[in-house]
Amino acid sequence: MKYLFFAIFISVFINAQKPENKQINIELKNELAQIDNDDQVYRELLQPNLTPERKQEIMKAKNLTEEDITVGISKIMSKQDEENLAKIEKIITKYGYPGKSLVGEPENKTAWLVIQHSPKINQYMPVIKKAAEEKEIPFRLYAMMLDRQLLQEEKEQIYGTQGTSFKITKNGKTEIVSLIWPIKNFNEVNSLRKEAGFSETIEEYSKNLFGNDFVLKNYTLEEALKLQNKNK
Question: Are residues 116 and 73 in the same domain?
Fold first, then answer.
């Protein structure tokens, strides 16, 4: 009995010496929440289901005119993206990736979101990969960024997360062709998506992206690049 008590005492003592889990950085969490809002608010104006009330609310908050929304929104959004990226780069330099253990959820996704909307995916891909491997962000976010990187490099994607649309002229008429960018292992993509943490199949995802009438086609890389070049 004496030895049992001694063993329990040692166990409690050792556990008491373990460092506490890193506390959430509330100030940083709030800063990231604001960056996230700044990233999304202008994109919200581009949504087809935006209500007139919400549109007016955003316009008032951001001091926007109708002209800003109709002809200047892309420029305004790009400027905001640049400002957001500069903030995120400073945060990463100071803390490393601001993940779940540092800022909690959902703010652990903010840095990923800003980088995903930036031209610096290649530069920060190792940081994002490490964060995913350490479970600081969901692995599916890394999968989405990897697919976007492959799309930008005009290579086949892995998880089927990237779609695109091209304007082409056919028989003298201009039409829009939408497609899921070519997938390396099309027959295995749903298994890969499930492993990565996606809840939708590629078929379900493509319809959510392009509408219920969209018909998924397994384009080859050569076919997609031809369509892309026609659009240039």
Answer: yes
